[in-house]
Each structure stands twice: as C-alpha cells, then as structure tokens.
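EI: anyone free to look at a 341-residue chain?
SC: sure, send it
EI:
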Amino acid sequence: MEELLKKYWEGTSTEEEKKRLLQLLEKREVRHFQKLKSEFELNAYSSSNSSKEEKFKIILKELHQKISEQKKKEKIRKHRFLYKIAAAVLVIFTIGFVALQNSNSNLPEISETQLTVIENPHQDKMMFFEMEDGSKVKLFPNSKIKYDLGYGNQNRNVKLIGKGYFKVAKNPELPFVVESKDYYTTALGTAFTVDGRSDTIQIQLIEGKIVVNSSDKSKSRFSAIYLSPGEKLIIDEISDRQRHFQPQKSAKVQSTYETSAMEIEKGVEILKFKKENLSEVLRQLSKIYKKKITYNADELEGLTFTGDLYIQDELNHSIQTLCELNELKFTEKANEILIEK
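SC: here you go
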C-alpha cells in the first residue's frame, strides 16, 4: 500500500492502481495502520505507552471518519476524492508523528529539508545581515547559519556552524534558539556570541539573559545553565566539563586598569567595565598585552563598553568583540593593531 500511495502522490498511478488503493483504504485501513503504528512507535521519541496509544487512536479515528464520508459519495467522484483521502493519510499521520516528537523532546530540532542557508565564505571578513524578524546577525569567517521556512512565524530556531554574534529582536511569543553542536542557547531579546569552531563551545552574553541546554545527542550533558551579562560558558567536550565564568557581584568597578578589579575566579582573570569609554578600554588592553593599538579618537567619541573581557583570551579576540559591538574594523600587524570605521 505504501508503494500505491507513493505512486499516487507522484501522479504516476494507473486507473487500476487508483481503484486498488481506494479498496485498500476502504476495507483494509485498520490492518495497514496497525503496521504503520508499529513503525511509528519504533521511530518515535520515547514516551509512555498510554500517551502513544491515545495519539494513535486519534489519528485512526480521523482516518475512519474520512473513509466513512467517502462511502456516501457517488462512484463517479471516487477518483477525485481519492486525492483527499491520500492527502489525509499523509498529512494526519505526519502531524501525529511530529506532535509526538515535540511532546517528548524539550529541545527544538531544525529539519534538514527546505532550509535557508546563509554562509560567510570569506577568510578574513565579517558578514552582517538582518533576519526576517529584525534580529541582527554577524557571521565570522567560514561560518554559516541554517533555518527553516517557519522562521519568524512558527519559530526562531537557527543552526550555527562556526561562530556568530546575535542581536535578538524581542518577541516573548517566539524564543530565539541557536543550535551549535547539539547544544541550544535560548533567548527572548538579547545579544550574545556562540563559537563552535573548535573542540570547545564558547558562549558569551553581552546583554539580556540566555539559557544554555545540552540535548540527548550532546557529548557533554548538563542541566540548564543561565547566563547574565558579562558571563561566559565554555563547554569542553573532550574532558566533559563546563566552565561557567561568573564575575563576583561584590567586585567594585573602576575606570582605569591601575585600580580596576582584576578578578580571579577559577584561575581566570576578568577585566570588568561598566559604560567605559572605548578609548579607555583599548588603552587598558594595550597596556595588559603590551601591544600598540592605534585609532582615531574622533571616530571613537561617544562609544562605550559594558561587560567583561577575559585576559586568558587572545588580544585579537577581545578586539574583535569590541569592534563587532561598535561596527568597527581592525587590522592586525606585527607590532600594532589598527582600528577604524
């Protein structure tokens, strides 16, 4: 029967095959669907037996109703109505299967069919674009995102390969979800970066609030981890460890490196800033890393930075973060970094 349905769906059925399919739907649908039920349960996500039984009974009941209606039609309309029956079989069964998947999986999954793919193929250039919902994305070199046709209406789920920065448009009805290596970062309206280019996945929150979850497929499993502004999560799949860098709330924020709090937490130095002039942030970085940073002071006028910079990161990583947030560009030379608009 599966082959007959497939041929009818493709428009290649003969008149004899159409009649045969109609007979099967009218007289043998119960036995056929018992077979489909077994396959359905084998492939579905785990759930209670009672839950699966109830869902399947609903699907079967709707199918029977369709067939009962068909018997009342005139014979000359059988072939035209067969399309509706075949469509009902496929659509109802698909809806039931998807519903069961969704009810038993607490994390969203992005189908690999009918995906929109945006890729940054450049080796040294950032790509900037805006999503349909107004969310802004900055893709790092050799990175890409994928999302399905339901984005913006049914969901806001994107799959990231590489590294991306996301400035999320607020929409309480549709959380923004980034999947990277089977880990999920969920936000309502915020700005954050996700970097999955190596054996570690690094997630840093710039503003707002996000929650990070592992999935059944994740190599490193953990309960939900919430991040606040300035916090950073590093997931190491090799050692199966998660490092959550959480600045001490009692630390006093200062405006110069000489007196600012260099916090030591889990062996990591953190440089904190709150609405600090960008030129001052760059001055401190230049002193810490002992590298000249050149810029036009007029171009940086009025630009500030709030957040944490991690001293264990390479200088160009911190510079890149600052430039991304302020729509600046930078060029790295042997003994100097040049920043410009």
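EI: Helices lie at 2-10, 15-27, 29-43, 49-71, 78-104, 278-289, 315-326.
SC: 👍
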